[in-house]
Amino acid sequence: MDRFKIQGGRRLEGTVRISGAKNAALPAMAAALLTSDPVTLQNIPHVRDIITMAKLLAHMRCRVESPDLPPSEFTIQAETVSLQEAPYELVKTMRASVLTLGPLLARFGYARVSLPGGCAIGARPIDIHIQALERLGAQISVEHGYVEARCKRLRGATFRFPKITVTGTENILTAAVLAEGETILENSALEPEVTDLAELLIKMGAKIEGVGTSTLRVQGVSSLHGATHAIIPDRIETGTFLVAGAITGGDLLLTDCEPQHLVAVLNKLKECGVEIKCEGNGTLRVRAAKKLVAADVTTEEYPGFATDMQAQFMALATQATGISHVRETIFENRYMHASEIMRMGANIAVDGNLAVITGPTPLSGAPVTASDLRASASLVLAGLVADNTTWIDRVYHIDRGYERIEDKLRAIGARIERV
Ligand code: EPU
Fold first, then answer.
1. How far apart (Å, rounded) are the C-alpha atoms in residues 349 and 340?
2. Is the CB of 161 within 6 Å of ligand 1?
3. Catalytic residue among 119, 151, 257, 272
C-alpha cells in the first residue's frame, strides 16, 4: 500500500495549475447516460473516483474514450447501454456511483443501484434521493442491499428537499430533465458543481430555469442530445493549495481556478492574516501572513464555508496564534484528522461537532493514518510544516480526489515522496 514520506519545513514557492473539479465531473459523466449521442467532457481531473465512474459506465456498456493519457477529456456514448446497474463492487469504492440512479431511471425506466453504506465521515443516507424520485412517479424498492427503481416515464412534480443535498439535487435534476411536464425543485443545493451540471444539461437540450438559485424549474423534454462541456476548476483543490502556501510561509500562484467559487474560504484565510490577491484570468496569489492569527469557522452549505475545507483549515489553525473554534455542521463524524494531527503535537479539543484549536504549536513529524479524502489532505499540510519526517498511511484516500498532489507539491519545493 502506498505511503507518503514528507520532510517538512520547506517554504513553498511557484505556480500550481488547478485541475477540474472531481465533484463536478462525476455528475457530468453520469449525465451522459441521458442520451445516445456522444457527450465530450473536458478538464477532467485524473483522480481515482473518475476512473471508477468510467469503469461503472463501461460496465453498463457505455463507450468511454479519451484522446490522451492520462485522460483529461472523455467522450462518453451511452448508445448501447444494456445493463442499468451499479454493482456493489464499484459503489462500495465510490458513493457517487449513486449519481447514475436518476439518469438511468429517466432514460430507461429502470435502474438497480447498490445502496451506498456509511463512510468514515458519517452515515450518509440517500433517503431524500429516493423520496424525490418517488415524487416523480418512480416505484422503488430497497432489497438485498440494492435500490431498484422502475417507472414508465417520470412525471414532473414539485419537491422540496427537506435538507440541502448536493448529489441529491444532482440526481433528481438529471431525472427531471426527461420527465413529462414541469418539475420544481425547492431548497436545491447551490454548490457550483450543481450549476455546472445544469449548464451541461442545458447544452444537451434540457430546459432548466433558476440555475444558481435554490429553486430549479425544469420543463421535461422527450430526449436530449450530445454536447461538449469543460468542467469547472476544483475549488477544494484550490483551497487546499491556498492553505499549503499559507502554512509554509510561502508564495504561490494558482492558475486556472475560479476565485468566485471560494469567497467564504478566501475571506476566512484573509481574516487569519493570509495575503491573497486575485490576479485576473483565474489566477490567485497567496503569500504568507506576517502573523497568522486564529479564526472561527462553521461549515455550511454553499456559499458558506465548505465542509470539504474544514480539515485543511484545522491544520492551518494549529499554526495560528490564538484559539480557533471549528464547528462541523454537515457531517457527524468529520474530525478523524484531529486525533492524527494531535499525535503530531497539535493542541485540539473535540467535543461533539466543535473542535477548539489552540495555537501556535510546533508540529513534529510522526507516522499518521489517513481516514478519508480531505482528512488526508490535512495530514499532508501538517506534514509540510512539521519537523523531521511524517509518514502518511493509506494515501489511496487522497488519490480519490487530488490529481498528482505529490508531483504538484514537489514542483513548488516540497519534499514529498510516494513510497
Ligand atoms: N443527507 C441525508 N439524506 C440524503 C442525502 C443527504 O440525510 O438523502 C445528509 C447527509 O448525510 C449530510 C447532508 O445531508 O449530512 C449533506 O450531504 P450531501 O448529500 O450534500 O453530500 P453528498 O452529496 O453525499 C457531496 C460531495 C461531498 C461533500 C458534500 C457536502 C460529491 C460527489 N460529494 O456529497 O464531497 O462533502 O457534498 O458538500 O459531490 C469530498 O469531495 O471529499 C466529499 C465528501
1. 12
2. no
3. 119
